[in-house]
Amino acid sequence: MNLSGKRVLVTGGSGFLGRHVVDALGRRGCSDVVVVRKAQHDLTHEQDAKRLFQETKPNVVIHLAAVVGGIGANRESPGSFFYQNVMMGALTMEQARLAGAEKFVGVGTICAYPKFAPIPFSEADLWNGYPEETNAPYGIAKKMLLVQGQAYREQYGFDAIHLLPVNLYGPHDNFDPASSHVIPALIRKFVDAIDAGAGEVVCWGTGTATREFLYVEDCAEGIVLATEQYDRPDPVNLGAGFEISIRALAELIAELMGFTGRLVFDRTKPDGQPRRSLDVTRARTFGFAAKTDFRTGLKRTIEWYKAERLLL
Predict the structure, then answer these.
(1) Which CATH number does 3-172+213-241+277-291 carry?
(2) DSSP, res 131
C-alpha cells in the first residue's frame, strides 16, 4: 500500500507512540493524517466513534489509542483498563469497517502473552496460557483487537492486521510516577535523587525480572512498514531482540546519569511478568529491524526529560 495518497486516521496520535507514528507517516509523504483526541471524540462511546468516521472518512486506520500504565496503575484500575481498552478497540474497528476503510492496523501489547511463555515469545504461543495477573485485564482487552480483526477478515474480507510491540521508551514518554513504565520511572527517580543529594534510589521488585525495550521511533517505523507491507491475519511481534534484567537496567541508567548512590530493591512490590523477550522473525518478512542502540536510546530519553521536565 502506497500511503502517500491515503487519508490516515491515527487514534492516540498525540500520545507517546502516536506522535512518532505521525512523523513516520510524514516521512513517507503522507500529508493527509487525522489525529484523534479524546476531548473531541471519546472512542468508548459508540456515537462518538460513529461521528468520527462520518467526519473524517479515512482510507487507513492505525489504532493506537489506549489507557495504559505501569504495574501500579494496572493493579489499581483493572476494571477501568479492561473496559476502556476493549470498548475503544471494538467500536473503532466496527466503525472503520462500516465506513469502508481499506486497512485497519491494530496495535496490541506484549502484556497479552502468557505469564510463563517460552523465551523468546513466539506469536504461536500467544494463546498458550493466562497473562501475568497484574496486567491481564489490560492485556486481554487489547488481545480482543486480534480476535475481532481475524473474525472481520474471515467474514467481511476486512484487511485488519495486529502488531505486538514490546516495552517502549524514548522522548515524550509518560514520566508521571503514578502511571509510568519502568524506564521513565527510573529516570525520574534518579533525577530527583541527584537534585536532592539522596544517597539511595528505591526500585520496585527483586530486580530479577527481565524486559526487552524498543526505542519508540523504531516502533513507529515498524508500524508504518507493516501498514504498507503486511496483509495477513497472524499477529506480528515488534521488538529489538535483546533482554535485560531490571537490576541491570537500573544500574545502566544510574551510570548514564552519574548517580553514585545505592540501589535498593523493594521486594514487597511486584516484579510483574518474570521474563519478556520477543522472537521478531515474522517482522523481518516486511523489512523491520530495530536500529537504535539501547545505550544511545537511553541517553536521548534522559536528555529529553532533563530538558523538558519543568514543562511536564
Answers:
(1) 3.40.50.720
(2) B
Summarised one tens digit per residue, pLDDT across range 167-217 is 999 999 999 988 888 999 999 999 999 999 999 999 999 999 999 999 999
Q: Would you give the distance in Å from CA 193 to the centre of its chain?
A: 28
- The answer to pTM > 0.90 is yes
Looking at per-residue confidence, does 165 or 72 come out higher?
Answer: 165
pLDDT confidence of residue 71: 74
CA distance 276 to 292: 19
List pLDDT tens digits, range 242-283. 999 999 999 999 999 999 999 999 999 988 888 999 999 999
Give the span between the Cα atoms of 21 and 25, in whole angstroms: 6
The cell numbers describing 182, all together, are 519502568
Q: Dihedrals φ, ψ of 233, to 5°?
A: -75, -20
Catalytic positions: 138
Backbone angles phi and psi of 231, in degrees to 5 = -150, 70
3-state secondary structure of 103: strand
Query: Mean per-residue pLDDT for 43-56?
Result: 97
Please give the Cα distance from 226 to 230 (Å, whole number): 5
Q: Please, which residues have CB within 8 angstroms of residue 255's CB and are 6 or more apart in sequence?
A: none
Nearest to 143, CA basis, from 116, 96, 114, 108: 108
As a whole number of angstroms, the distance between CA 89 and CA 160 comes to: 12
User: Among all chains, which residue has been given the C-alpha cell 504461536?
Assistant: 124
Provide the residue ranges of all domains of the chain, joining segments of one domain with +.
3-172+213-241+277-291
